[in-house]
Give the backbone structure.
Amino acid sequence: MDAACESIVTRMTGQRAATLRDPAELAAQGLVAESALPVLEQVAARYAVAVTPHVAALIDPADPADPIARQYIPDARELEQAQGEHPDPIGDHAHAPVAGIVHRYPDRVLFKLVHVCAVYCRFCFRREMVGPGKETALSPDAYAAALDYIRSRPEIWEVILTGGDPLMLSPRRLAEIMADLAAIEHVRIIRIHTRVPVADPDRISAEMVAALKVAGATTWLALHANHPRELTGAARAACGRVVDAGIPMVSQSVLLRGVNDDAVTLEALMRAFVECRIKPYYLHHGDLAPGTTHLRTTLAQGQALVRGLRGRVSGLCQPDYVLDIPGGFGKVPAGPAYLSQADYSSSGAREPHPESRYRVVDYCGDVHLYPPEP
Ligand code: SF4
């Protein structure tokens, strides 16, 4: 870690000494084998490593398939880059008019304020852009230019603070940024994406919660978590402080092989979110980030899982399963199709008849016609 980055992380987290940041520190805690150090040093030289004490305590070192370790502990397979994997898998750069801004859809922008995180996730789709050695945060000039960009475009209704992790900023700095954004009349929604409530829950202090609220705009907080064990008592309490302050929360998860790609875990994760007053929002299909093949499922597996989820939990617990199209073409729903207008397909007609019936597949896979037979 370069000195400037180390200093900002120390200042922002106050826990530099305890966060595990390299393979030797992980080995000292029994989280990786000493024999793996040479290859893991290569991984760490390419992709940042950080495991907070809170996350380290969740890992069972005796379990080689531990789903928490799989998300945070470096793996030799990260050095393998498969065909199709790309350093910018969802095409942020194709839609970056000024530094720090990604403007992919007309009414909203991503605003990337910092490039550091409390933890570094092994599946991260921005793994080439975050971590030590990258630019730590936007310079004052770049920040001003990004604000000018938002200010000059009245169609921007929602600003999404993402990262890096915006909650790595101090409450004081975050409050200043929230005030700057809320002062722009057409910015009505400020959405903040973070992993901090599950990675370092104590960081969600009263000061941090106060910084999230701002007059003139509505704040939403999107929590990123992938396994129900991440929703510890402390993490639930941190989320409770946010929701009690009147800030609505949604969830984002990534479907990850060996972490949450089974019906029982996925169901428990979605139930845990709802118990915490967090509405499940997105379940992402794994992006084509370099060195992440071992963590991705197939789309067919994802569709089967969300079809099963539909039958196991209420609508409150249903996330949208989505795919980010490589190249920057945006997000699309990737879940199974339940409806098709199929009556015409065997008749040779090129278009469905407006009154043709629908073929509806229920969550058990049984097919029905709508409207039903008279
Ligand atoms: S917290 Fe988000 S940006 Fe940071 S490493 Fe994890 S997925 Fe990437």
User: Anything to note?
Assistant: The chain has a mean pLDDT of 91. The CA atoms of residues 16 and 88 lie 29 Å apart.
